[in-house]
Amino acid sequence: MFYESRHTYALNPNLKALAEYTKINKVGGIHAFTLDTKEGIEESRNFCPLYGIDEEAATGTSNGALTYYLF
What we know:
Layout: H1 5-10, H2 15-24, E1 30-36, E2 41-48, E3 53-56, H3 60-70
């Protein structure tokens, strides 16, 4: 978890390594998020290269799960 949204935007994942990681660990993708303590907001990015989606523009499933994780 990061504490400023600039950290989330700065992510530049190695998609090939991420695809291998998700395959080995049997997960669909990675949902990276930050709680921006200055702005009081959550920012997130979702990566799912194993299934041909390098970065998903919007993901209700991951954000729904994140809601329960945070609260």
